[in-house]
Amino acid sequence: MSRPIDHRENTITAAIEASTLEPGSAPEDARRFGALDRAGGWGLALLVARSVFLEELPDGPTDRVSAEEFAELAGIGADRVVRHYLAWQEAAEAGVVPAAEELSREREIEFPPAEWWAGFFRLAVEAPEPEAAPVAVAEPEPVIEPEPVADEAPAPVEVPRQLVLDRVVHDPELRADLAREVAATPELRDAVIAEKARSSRVEFLQTIADSQTYRVSKTQEVPLPDDVRAVAAQQLAIAEAPDATPEMVNAAFKTVRGLLTETIEAEPAVHAQQQREKLRRAIKTTTARVEGLPAAGPVIDEELLAEIRLLVHKLSAVMGA
User: Fold this and answer.
1) Cα first-last separation, the chain
2) Three-class SS of residue 125?
3) CB neighbours of 47 closer than 8 A, spacing ≥ 6?
4) Which residue intervals of the chain are DSSP H helices?
5) I need a surface site. Which of 41, 103, 130, 187 has the fewest CB within 10 A?
6) Tens of pLDDT along 159-169?
7) HSE-CB for 265 with a 13 A CA cutoff
């Protein structure tokens, strides 16, 4: 289908290579990210993927930080950090880069071709919000006995296609080869990205239409009003129509997401809990990082002392806010 991938062609600017492959710390990666933000691409995504935990940070010392803290260190918006992380994970699912949790600062990475980046980033930008997950309430479903139907011979085209699909599902090597070929072929790669985006939106609409509550965080849920669920059901019908275009599916998704945002903003307690969790993550990360610092008394100069005083002042401002 296409020529083999030649990683010798997988070049990014020398500045990005020098910045992303040198061992360091999460704050250093964040500052390099801010400096290289205009360059875009795999190098920036690597800085995020190896330095950020998208979910709640684990207990104990860690060299990773939250997306919010990384964004603050980099001087950019947290949403952009999250999208780079998600784009890297989309590429990992396609088998072209290691998963974020497998990365370390000492591990050298061969980047995929630079032109692949746009497709994966577009998929991440169009994905539903990563922090929230709808929670469906289980309801008993009636048992419907299947009606006997006459055996129908599959269409001639369906037989070989189903055989190929069955083999792909049960043959890991063939599946890996096919994934590489798809990733290396722009037309196929774009088709997969577009279909995944469409499926993600339809699934989002389906879940909102069927759910009683919406999980904003691990500890907070908001009830879904009947009118929001009704609109989600209407938009789902539009998105699932055989003649639905990508623009129609995207418009349906944005309509429901907008209503969902309004629902969450109408719950002050939920917003307050989100702020508490954000502050708790920042404190946990800062504490772990400070505890890991060596004794620095002999090397502290006036400039460092001024930065420490500024940090103490900021902490005092947070406590007094």
Assistant:
1) 61
2) helix
3) 19, 20, 29, 30, 32, 33, 36
4) 14-20, 26-36, 42-49, 67-74, 78-93, 117-126, 158-170, 172-184, 186-210, 226-240, 246-265, 268-291, 302-320
5) 187
6) 456 666 777 67
7) 6
pLDDT tens for 116-125 read 788 888 877 7
The pair of structure tokens assigned to 89 is 């994970």
Q: What one-character-per-residue DSSP string does 232-280 give?
A: HHHHHHHHHSTT--HHHHHHHHHHHHHHHHHHHHT-HHHHHHHHHHHHH
What size, in residues, is the chain? 321
Reduce the DSSP state of residue 223 to 3 states and report it: strand
CA distance 157 to 151: 17
Instruction: Take residue 147 and report the two structure tokens written for it.
Output: 């009606």
What residue has token string 């002392």? 305
Strand order of the sheet with strand 213-215? 133-135, 213-215, 221-223
CA distances from 100 to 22, 70, 93, 112 (A): 17, 15, 11, 15
Token duo for residue 273: 């809990």
Q: Quick check: 135 and 215 in contact, CB under 8 A?
A: yes
The number of beta carbons lying within 10 Å of the beta carbon of residue 20 is 24
d(CA 68, CA 304): 24
